[in-house]
């Protein structure tokens, strides 16, 4: 399945986030296979911290050997790029105070992306409270949870800049996901594809965010920490509409 087909689907899609630093390539194969059996729609690969030896290429290779589902890079900077993937979320952290995260790393990565011939998916990345590690590293001015109008304004700004994807991110492992009210407000105001992630750890969360209008939900921690990944993914998929 390619990314065009992924976009054609009417239901909310499930993206499995794999952090290349968290496990060995053989474990990645197991995760990818189980997530596919559970019905995941595509894989994202990235992590905000580099905790060990960079095994990005090997991680993407392991997924590609296991499944034909698309693999989309989710780069923390230009070092998160590899020709082994299918596509890259070419993201700008619009609510960062640090210009490297709005335009700098994009400039560093762009020639590599051209060379690697990756499909480019332009994305506005927006950090919502609490924001977690990525909020801290990305020097984000986190969008207050009770201010959906700010999320709408940033999302529209992203769309008007030409971004096809808007990602509302509460931060990996957040104690609460992005409020469904905020998701709904953004969805009602944009034409771009809406991705929501951070803190979605049970089927109830997935259902609320899907009902609010997300086109994609991302789960990372829930997949990394569950013993039965297939059941975890299928429990999300069953509840999304
Ligand atoms: C387009 C290019 C080349 C770069 C974009 C650079 C930008 C805007 C980065 C945004 C800020 C950032 C640090 C993003 C990381 C995104 C990411 C991979 C998050 C998921 O990782 P976590 O699961 O939170 O990471 P840890 O588990 O390492 O905390
Ligand atoms: O690890 P979780 O909480 O699922 O978050 C996923 C993703 O939105 C992080 O960038
Ligand atoms: Mg992580």
UniProtKB/TrEMBL annotation:
One Pfam family from the record: PcrB
Localization annotation: Cytoplasm
Reactions it catalyzes: sn-glycerol 1-phosphate + (2E,6E,10E)-geranylgeranyl diphosphate = sn-3-O-(geranylgeranyl)glycerol 1-phosphate + diphosphate
Annotated binding of Mg(2+), by residue: 19, 48
Principal EC category: transferase
Chief location bin: cytoplasm
Record-listed sn-glycerol 1-phosphate binding positions: 167-173, 198-199, 220-221
InterPro entries from the UniProt entry: GGGP/HepGP_synthase_I, GGGP/HepGP_synthase_sf, GGGP_HepGP_synthase, GGGP_synth
EC number: 2.5.1.41
Domain of life of the organism encoding this protein: Archaea
Known cofactor(s): Mg(2+)
GO biological process: glycerophospholipid biosynthetic process
Protein's pathway: Membrane lipid metabolism; glycerophospholipid metabolism
Keywords: Cytoplasm, Lipid biosynthesis, Lipid metabolism, Magnesium, Metal-binding, Phospholipid biosynthesis, Phospholipid metabolism, Transferase
One GO molecular-function entry: magnesium ion binding
Protein task: Prenyltransferase that catalyzes the transfer of the geranylgeranyl moiety of geranylgeranyl diphosphate (GGPP) to the C3 hydroxyl of sn-glycerol-1-phosphate (G1P). This reaction is the first ether-bond-formation step in the biosynthesis of archaeal membrane lipids.
Family statement: Belongs to the GGGP/HepGP synthase family. Group II subfamily.
PANTHER family assigned: HEPTAPRENYLGLYCERYL PHOSPHATE SYNTHASE, PTHR40029
Protein name per UniProt: Geranylgeranylglyceryl phosphate synthase
Source species of the chain: Methanohalarchaeum thermophilum
